[in-house]
Amino acid sequence: MKKYTFLDLGMINSPYMAEVQEAVARVIASGRYVGGEECRRLESGLCELTGAQEAVGVSNGLDALRLILRAWVDRGDLEKGDEVIVASNTYIASILAIIDAGLRPVLAPADPATLNLDTSRLDEALTPRTRVVMPVHLYGRACWDESLKNFVERNGLLVIEDNAQAIGARAVTTGLSGTYMTGGLGHAGAFSFYPTKNLGAMGDAGAVVTHDRDLAERVRALSNYGSDYRYHNIYIGGNCRLDPVQAAVLNVKLPYLERENEHRRMIAGIYDREIYNESIIKPSVGGCDMVWHQYVVRCAVRDMLRDYLSEAGVATDIHYAVPPHRQPCMAGADYGVAGDAACQAEEIGETVLSLPISSCTTQEDAHAIADIINRF
Ligand SMILES: Cc1ncc(COP(=O)(O)O)c(C=O)c1O
């Protein structure tokens, strides 16, 4: 029986093998193993991609989020206990970063059609302590529209984008600085290059992108022991620097990102046209230029569907079965919940299923998977 893998990172990276080996060999030969040319090149590549003025390579996506929030607190833009509105069905990392910075997450409902923050219900999460909105571009879909932009401007809020899953996605409407690409829409954006991401490193890596030079300088210093120049420490910082070996890998892969994303769009298009099973809700395809980090269907009998697909050779995954507020670490945490956001996230967690969608999935695979699903 043919097996349809969910994700095979070795296979995904094999077309880049020769170039990556050369690039890594260059780093080794340079003798510079922290910072350096490859890191700077990646940062300019990210500025070019997003239209942002500044980019700072960091250790991973969680640190990217943490450092932005921490820098805003240090600068006096935020005070401890200020509230950050975030979708209740996000990945836990978004919430961990908020709590780590001494801020209070307020879980807001997702739009059932997009599974992103419901931008028509933001007022339900607004309190006198609201200072920030964190749109998470979940599954590769830009969480950005006129009502989010108006909400932010009307209430004088900061916007930190969690762009871990949507590098290369375009919003339908311009961001605060007039650009369209995710990561550059708000005041600052966090990127993850975790190996499974659309632009994946061969280890951990991340970046902060912003139009705010002072913020970028603070993030750079905070990621490097709080140091502005050598052996001079102005903040209580940490070590959250981007590894130049990972930067070299990413510099090889960045020029091919659009090709990878286009392949994902093609697979999503096949699923969208060919899956027609009444028990399955497909993700909406209109509205923005998605990069399909995940193709997530919903099904009331999700576990049954998953078992059926597994028996038919189709590997799937779940993003995410248990929402952040139900994780054991949140039991004693201080967070807010707007309206029905908590039970809604639980319902999403019980019904979502991610189908294979990456460069490992061929057109033929997608036709066959759609056919298998239609026989469920
Ligand atoms: C939505 C979201 N935010 C943040 C992160 C954190 O990124 P990293 O794994 O690079 O720390 C991830 C990914 O893992 C994510 O999916």
In short:
Helices cover 37% and strands 14% of the residues. It is an alpha/beta fold. The site of pyridoxal-5'-phosphate has 15 residues, from helix 4 and helix 5.
Write the layout of secondary structure elements.
Layout: H1 9-13, H2 17-30, H3 37-50, E1 54-58, H4 61-75, E2 83-87, H5 92-100, E3 104-108, E4 130-134, H6 146-155, E5 158-162, E6 188-192, E7 206-210, H7 213-222, E8 227-229, E9 232-233, H8 244-253, H9 257-274, E10 280-281, E11 295-299, H10 302-311, E12 336-337, H11 341-351, E13 352-355, H12 363-374
Parallel strand pairs: 2-3, 2-4, 3-12, 4-5, 5-6
Antiparallel strand pairs: 1-7, 6-7, 8-9, 10-11, 11-13
Pyridoxal-5'-phosphate binds next to α4 and α5.
Structure description:
This protein has 376 residues and is of the alpha/beta class. Helix content is 37%, strand content 14%. The strands form three sheets. It has an eight-stranded mixed beta sheet with strand order 1-7-6-5-4-2-3-12, with helices on both faces. It has a three-stranded antiparallel beta sheet with strand order 10-11-13. Helix 5 links the parallel strand 2 and strand 3 (104-108). Helix 4 crosses helix 7 (213-222) and helix 9 packs parallel to helix 12 (363-374). The mean pLDDT is 97. The site of pyridoxal-5'-phosphate has 15 residues, from helix 4 and helix 5.
